[in-house]
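#data-curation
PF: Archiving a pair of folding outputs for the training set. Convention for this channel: one message per protein, sequence first, structure tokens after, nothing in between. First:
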Amino acid sequence: MKIWCCFCFGEDQDSVGGMTNSSDEASDNSRLGFRWGSYGRERADFEEGKVGDALPTWEAMVGVGSSSGVRAVEALGFYEEPSVTSENLEFDGASYNKRAKFYTDILECNPTVISSDADNSSLPATSCYNASSVPSMSSTLCYTHMLNSSGVQNPYDSSGGRDDEADGSDTSKIGTLETRMDLTDDLLHMVFSFLDHNDLCRAAMVCRQWRTASAHEDFWRCLNFENRAISIQQCDILENLMISAMVQPYYSYQVKEKENIMFLYVYLDVFLLVADMCHRYPNATEVNIFGAPYIHLLVVKAISLLRNLEVLTLGRGQLGDPFFHGIAECHMLRSLVVNDATLGNGIQEIPVNHDRLRHLQITKCRVLRISVRCPQLETLSLKRSNMAHAVLNCPLLHELDIGSCHKLADAGIRSAATSCPLLESLDISNCSSVSDETLRDIAESCVNLHSLDASYCPNISLESVRLTMLTVLKLHNCEGITSASMSAIQHSSMLEDLELDNCSLLTSVTLNLPHLLNISLVHCRKFVDLSLRSLKLSSVTVSNCAALHRISITSNSLQKLVLQKQESLTKLALECQSLQEVDLTDCESLTNSICEVFSDGGGCPMLKSLVLDNCESLTAVGFCSTSLVNLSLVGCRALTALNLKCPYLEQVSLDGCDHLERASFGPVGLQSLNLGICPKLTILYLEAPNMVLLELKGCGVLSEASINCPLLTSLDASFCSQLKDDCLSATTALCPLIESLILMSCPSIGSDGLLSLRWLPSLTLLDLSYTFLMNLQPVFDSCLQLKVLKLQACKYLKDSSLEPLYERGALPSLRELDLSYGTLCQSAIEELLTCCTHLTHVSLNGCMNMHDLNWGFNVLQNRLLQNLNCVGCPNIKKVFIPPAACCFHLSSLNLSLSANLKEVDVACFNLCFLNLSNCCSLEILKLDCPRLTSLFLQSCSIDQVTIEKAITNCNSLETLDVRFCPKICSVSMVSLRAACPSLKRIFSSLSPP
């Protein structure tokens, strides 16, 4: 049989169809390109299994070689306009059995020409069919190309199409466009074994060798024709058309009827394709025709041709007696899947008889009565089928699923299950009629039953049922399950998985099952008490049991326990040698006795992570554990005392513990700790050999602190107003490696405490801002390596307090000094800036006594000053920094918010940033700063001319901010850019002219 893909059909194959009886008939037939009168004979031959060359193909039916045929293909969405025409293609006639050729400018041959959009494309306006009902034909065209025999030349074959020697046009060009690959047949077979069917069809279009290799039966063991759907209305139309097409000549039809017949053949090609694929690959072992049209015809043809068929999947149609009688002749069949189908006429008994069938699924099917006689059957599923009677004769059946068979009576379930003595797994979920008597009979007949799913069976209680070999038991939403049912479950000594979700009448569970692995209790409204004893228990799921009061678990295998939102839980007893993680979040009723459970000797020796978030009844928590690593007490608002003796504890979370007053950590393995979130903390004991960072910021009532952290490098005690000198002295003695010490707003720290800083040889940062210090001599004597000193708002410091800095050279390593909001006079500030040339960052923000910043004098050495901040100095009027000041490193100068500043004259070679914003009195601005990049003059009263003169010598200026400058108009922007061509951004509050 020769079936052509629309890519392979050329104008020289006009002999495939066409009749010449009359001019009208000839034109119609030449347009459609096939012999309509012969269809009756061809159809008969096909039904008899004679698949030969006479069968019409879909491509020939629609006449791809003619213009009208192309229009028909376009209308059905089965055609794509090629980007390169066949007249522009050249092919080499070289040997094809060892070599595959690829052309760089050739049309890409895509066998799956029907895209997902094409599948839904609409028919012409004259057609009576909806676009949604047109089936996808992509796989049809893919498989059709695979069926082409070697007797017909393919225009894309390496040796077919055109004769290079006969056509002498530019054969040399093709040689430059092709790439040759030597691929043996064995290598091709190995490569193609990784491809799916669609990719195999694409590969088949490359050349004859590839087509032969891709058609090997090893790749076509599984034939998939799933979802070749057709609507009920179209089935009726096609049935009428098939009858009329066999008795009425084509030329007698009207135009619309001809289109309908053409549409008929489109769907018939699916039928022809399935049959021919089964004929061509008789060794195929798996066929899927789920959702295909005329499923009863297709499946009969498939099982008659495929004698080695092992797996058959079908559905969405009607299957009658011929099918069920026919599968008995398919001796190799091992698995049969029928889904969403109507069996028989809906009122008769359907027999399923097969001697070797192992797996049978008849799901979601409409049938009144079914009889299964399969002596080798192992698994059977009748799930969601609406049969009223089921008779089983399957002595070797191991697995039976009759879930959601609502019409199946209690007696029918009993009869079906008890007839299978080797049954191991039974699913009767959603069978509302099943009773304890049925389960008792099943337990007596099926002694090997291991798995039972009786979910949503309201009439069972299991009180008189003994299932000794059961390993899996599912009882979701069983209203009859109560605490009395647990005694029956206790007899299932082999039970491993137990699910009791949504058992609304269950109040308590007490089980001692040696093999129990998993148990689930979710949404049990009246559940109060849980007691489990199983050495192999590995998973416990308890959730949304609002009344649960007590839990007792004994297990050697349980590693993780999650009991979130058990609001009534008050007692917890655990004997779990392998337990490592426990989550008790939102267990609001837990009391302080829970600490004994998780301490050493409490039954959880391997516990590493404990979460007690939002346990609001906890007031005093104390753990002594050698295994605990992570502890979370977030949101425990009633917690007032904390005592942790956990040497390996690495992380503790105390967010929201607002009422914590006493905390003892010792010893612990913490590396960092933040207690600043505990504002009521008064007493602290901390022993942490590995700690490097401690934050006590905000512990305003902390009065006693013992900190023993030999590796501590950073201590922040800001706003610890009750921290005294003795605490600071003890801390410095025990923590000699501190490098950063912040004592801001610690008014109780005095000279004695500062003298203890001599025990900190590595101290480089000291913050004494907002303190009542009057003498800094202890700092100068003790902190010889100090690099950063912050003295903000130290209003009790005298002018002479800083004399050791600029007269005697104290703190030679000091680089940053912050004297903001101090009371130093003008002379002290001038001496400091003149003599301390080693300073790199100086902050004088808000200094009320500073009047001028005048460096109009020579210095003996180079200044290292890089950053100078004088923000908000209300009395400063003039700033003069000439080149003689030797400020070669000054890069940032901030004078903003200096309301009385009138004159600024700065000449600094490396100055990059200058901020004069909100200097509303500024009148004179002189700049000689060739590297200045940013200048801020926001809200200044300076005029345009002054700004232009100032920025003329700033050749690197890129950003200028003149927002809210009253003397700057929108026209000034042009002049400013002309004065400084390097400007990239000018910020102005005015709209452009």
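PF: Second:
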Amino acid sequence: MNKNSSNIMALAPNTSNKRETVCIFGTGDFGRALGQKMIQSGYPIVFGSRSPQTSNLIPKEAEVLSHTEAAQKAAIIIIAIQRQHYDFLTPLAEILRGKVLVDVSNNLKINQYPESNAEYLAQLVPGAKVVKAFNTVSAWALQSGTLDASRQVFVCGDDMEAKQMVMDIVCALGLTPLDQGSLLAAQEIENYPLQLFPMWKFPIFLSLGLTAFFFFYCLIRDVIYSYVYENKDYSFFIAISIPNRICPVVALILLALVYLPGVLAAIIQLYRGTKYSRFPDWLDKWMLCRKQLGLVALAFAFLHVFYTLIIPIRYYVRWRTEDGIISKALNNKTDPFNNTNGWLSDSYLALGILGFFFFVLLGITSLPSVSNSVNWREFRFVQSKLGYLTLILCTAHTLVYGGNRFLSPSSYRWYLPNIYMLSLIIPCIVLILKFVLIFPCLDRQLTQIRQGWERNPQYSEQSNYIINKSAV
């Protein structure tokens, strides 16, 4: 079935059961889109407006009345109006008593007001049952059938019956309601649409910082050094050569940083002898963004692959190849085949291909559509076991590339090592620590700790007491 037919089915009205009338205060873009969607789902809709004259923009099946008249016709009223215009509800407090008011508003800034808009609405109309919902859905998503946007609708409220009524509407519209609890959760729900990639900030800023650092590092080492000491202008390296050195380095470091917090967490648990003590905040935040770190690392790996594929067509590479052939022909000189170099070259390429393959596999399994289709053990096997295998292959790929150059003085320009040497520091630390942690004496104890065993239960009680005291 194609996408268009799915949209038609999602928007088809359900007339098998007579639904109760729903009132919508506000005839703006969102109010009209929500009203149209509810009409298509079989709900009779009445709009409450300060200008009750019928407009061409209002769905023809809907009725437009004044706020007072519209409120008297429905038990559920959706407030599709910004917070600064809520004052008109105060004179309607008696009419709205006992009715369900659904607040769908958002603010311009996170924590713009001391209380949430839904809590403010509950204060204005104390006799009403206020429910927060629909603020994470856009007018465009409602108009497009919601198949091209998130289906999730966060719902919260103090009255369970009122909340269930709203969740039934959400389900009828083909959306997925997520109960977030009482109205105290409203502020968090209102802040959610205002967040701009909250889990991506650290990975993106870190990758940009590493990229900038290694760019200037390579610029000094490969361009400026050659110009000063060899009087050669390699400034064109900035376009292809330097990026092709930076991308694999950043990818390998970020991949190692995906698994480093897990190793650090294991060390902390072994040191404390319990799992019932919180990790430091910085480690908690680090562990929460591991997926994003891995995906950014995969993006840099893809760039490295693309840059590598165009190497043969570069003018500089073709010039060096042709110049070498002509030089050997004029000197009547040939180089014998070196079997060791052949093995190193093929091993380097094979490790890179295998590492990239498993890297892509990790990225695919992190997609929600894939991760939701596997159980926890399968997901853990791919992300942990295959993840470490990927890190080993990529680290070996780098080691084989230039392992014999570590002790070569020519590799250190201005006492600066090549950047691939720097890229091996964090991955080697992670792999060595992980190798130590899988020793039976440590692995057995770590497994017991994660199953609830404690070396010193009093330490856990003291830690929890400190945490609870600081929270108060």
